[in-house]
């Protein structure tokens, strides 16, 4: 039998979620009042599968100059809008899912007054130069000059998507921690948001989200309805994320902690401390492949850490290796690691096994999770993983 051939392990249909008008994704509480959801219910952008989307796009468009707002309202691909770029002295640009380039929205350049008006509509930026629109999931990021003046804005569309969790629903039953890797824009935060809702509402877990930039739960003091019954802890400054992670465990007794963008050694150590207390962790980290984390000294502790070991002569001959080799130091913080190659193409590792095999120069067995031509979730087992692709 060819071990490099894919094996189909599981096949199940992805049901189209049926949400009533009273479902929380259709209603939001704002400033003490209950407002009907203004977002259009649509098929998940750019895919054709049956996921339900809420994007509150009209609220993001309100911060843009009027002519840009009108252009985008009439844009046939507005459901696929990823972000709008406003840079001082340059033409405004819209970027869409699935496109490598962008589309200019007009011929004239963005003025300083237009940038100032957009800032006033958004509100105050945090220490990470990010801001949001209260009650929505949109993210506004600023580019500043050397003097601190805002000279550019990236207006990123935030969407609540129902249906992504079916790619990993079976893994949630293990009650073990999961780390997601992927490039920006592949949908990591969207998945975190839905996993939080499913664990809190369907699995009846005590879930706490450590929301550093308000990307998971949205801007404002009341979190977005897309996280369901999960609780959200905001972080005053990005550098304090690791402290809030520990505070969440010590003060609020969660069964699950969800954290986005683990990027420092202190945050990696906080993750290990939380995992050692028996709390399930769901997180994301910078990098596209498991090999990126193995080679990253700041984050390698998430997968158990790597150390150099010197073998004796007999052991080296028995292994047919050099005397100095790399070994995993400790059990991984995250027993499962998922590489999000594309929005609907994921590679799943049993972290401990995959790290050991990669360090020994072997190819680990991985699971490829994807949607086929009929939008069913398919899980296949492969033995051809090399860290760069399948």
From TrEMBL:
AAA+ ATPase domain residues: 174-331
Keyword annotations of the record: ATP-binding, Hydrolase, Nucleotide-binding
Protein name stated in the entry: p-loop containing nucleoside triphosphate hydrolase superfamily protein
PANTHER family registered for this protein in UniProt: EXPRESSED PROTEIN, KINASE-RELATED
InterPro entries documented for this protein: AAA+_ATPase, P-loop_NTPase, Spore_III_AA_AAA+_ATPase
UniProt keyword Hydrolase present: yes
Gene name, Swiss-Prot/TrEMBL: LOC100277737
GO MF: ATP binding; hydrolase activity
One Pfam match: Spore_III_AA
């Amino acid at each position: 039998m060819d071990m490099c051939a894919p094996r189909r392990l599981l096949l199940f249909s992805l049901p189209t979620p049926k949400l009533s008008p009273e479902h929380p994704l259709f209603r939001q509480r704002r400033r003490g009042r209950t407002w009907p959801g203004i977002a259009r219910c649509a098929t998940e952008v750019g895919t054709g599968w049956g996921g339900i989307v809420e994007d509150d796009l009209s609220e993001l468009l309100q911060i843009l100059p009027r002519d840009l707002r009108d252009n985008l309202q009439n844009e046939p691909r507005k459901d696929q809008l990823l972000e709008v770029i406003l840079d001082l002295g340059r033409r405004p640009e819209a970027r869409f899912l699935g496109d490598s380039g962008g589309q200019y929205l007009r011929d004239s350049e963005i003025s300083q007054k237009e940038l100032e008006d957009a800032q006033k509509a958004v509100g105050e930026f945090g220490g990470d130069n990010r801001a949001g629109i209260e009650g929505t999931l949109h993210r506004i990021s600023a580019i500043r000059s050397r003097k601190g003046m805002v000279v550019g804005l990236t207006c990123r569309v935030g969407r609540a998507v129902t249906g992504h969790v079916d790619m990993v629903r079976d893994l949630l039953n293990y009650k073990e921690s999961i780390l997601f890797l992927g490039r920006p824009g592949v949908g990591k935060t969207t998945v975190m948001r839905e996993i939080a809702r499913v664990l809190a509402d369907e699995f009846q877990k005590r879930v706490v989200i450590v929301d550093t930039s308000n990307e998971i739960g949205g801007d404002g003091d009341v979190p977005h309805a897309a996280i369901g019954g999960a609780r959200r802890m905001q972080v005053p400054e990005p550098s304090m994320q690791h402290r809030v992670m520990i505070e969440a465990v010590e003060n609020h007794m969660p069964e699950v902690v969800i954290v986005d963008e683990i990027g420092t050694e202190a945050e990696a150590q906080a993750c290990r401390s939380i995992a050692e207390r028996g709390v399930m962790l769901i997180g994301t980290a910078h990098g596209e492949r498991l090999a990126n984390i193995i080679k990253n000294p700041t984050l390698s502790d998430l997968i158990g850490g790597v150390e150099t070991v010197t073998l004796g002569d007999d052991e080296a001959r028995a292994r047919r290796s050099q005397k100095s080799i790399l070994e995993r130091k400790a059990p991984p913080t995250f027993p499962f690691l998922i590489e999000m190659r594309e929005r609907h193409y994921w590679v799943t590792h049993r972290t401990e096994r995959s790290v050991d095999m990669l360090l020994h120069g072997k190819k680990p067995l991985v699971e490829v999770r994807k949607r086929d031509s009929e939008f069913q979730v398919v899980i296949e087992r492969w033995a051809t993983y090399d860290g760069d692709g399948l």
